[in-house]
Specification:
- Strands 2-1-6-7-8 form a five-stranded parallel beta sheet, sandwiched between helices. The protein has a three-stranded antiparallel beta sheet with strand order 3-4-5.
- The chain contains seven helices and eight strands; from the N terminus they run αβαββββααβαβαβα.
- α1 crosses α2 and α4 crosses α7.
């Protein structure tokens, strides 16, 4: 159990100590909760950080059920099993993707002044979030970072479901987690304080000690 996202990030930094002050290494935090972790990891590990925007594409009958996710460059991850099992149409996915992409780019422009990202060639990229359930947003993030030519991708999260942990091990070079509980139901169950993070809060963090970004 974590008291807060900051507490979780401080504990996570302990198992990422080999990356402390390492050259050509950056921490990317998935909006919004992951940005809080990235900011704290940046300070604990002496690494630059940046915000990574990924938008979930919810199922038409349940917005909380992720059928996929879209990245800032328009690339998309689709959970084929959910799509086929629930009969989600291609038209719905494409239409929702277009709408979510506009929202995402506006959000990133507000928080970091740009929705574009530079090349990550030869860099070690630590991708973090406050937790991972089905993994749709994390899978989209991994694909996005791979397209930016990262040398190595390290997924680092406080808590993750066992099934998704195994899936991500096949997609990233390294997956680090503090908790991999069998009784995983929702990320929030592992935090005493899991209040929603706002764009304003992330923007304030980003503008304070942003460090070296990749815009």
């Amino acid at each position: 159990m974590f008291t807060s996202r900051t507490d979780a990030a401080q504990k996570l930094a302990d198992i990422l100590s080999k990356y402390k002050s390492r050259d050509q290494t950056i921490v990317l935090g998935i909006l919004r909760g992951g940005a809080v972790l990235a900011h704290t990891l940046s300070r604990c590990l002496g690494l630059p950080w940046d915000v990574l925007g990924i938008k979930k594409i919810g199922a038409p009958f349940d917005p909380e059920l992720a059928v996929g996710a879209v990245a800032p460059d328009g690339s998309i991850y689709v959970d084929r099993w959910i799509k086929e099992h629930y009969g989600v149409s291609d038209d719905y996915i494409e239409g929702t993707k277009a709408r979510k992409l506009v929202e995402l780019r506006d959000q990133l422009n507000y928080i970091r002044g740009s929705s574009s990202y530079g090349n990550l060639n030869s860099m070690i990229v630590i991708v973090t979030d406050d937790g991972v359930a089905t993994g749709a947003t994390m899978k989209a993030a991994i694909s996005f970072v791979k397209n930016k030519n990262a040398q190595k991708i390290v997924v680092a999260v406080p808590v993750i479901s066992p099934e998704t942990f195994e899936e991500l091990r096949g997609l990233a070079d390294e997956v680090k987690a503090l908790l991999i509980p069998e009784d995983f139901m929702a990320v929030g169950q592992f935090y005493l304080n899991f209040q929603q993070v706002t764009d304003d809060e992330v923007a304030k963090l980003y503008r304070s000690i942003k460090g070296e970004n990749i815009s």
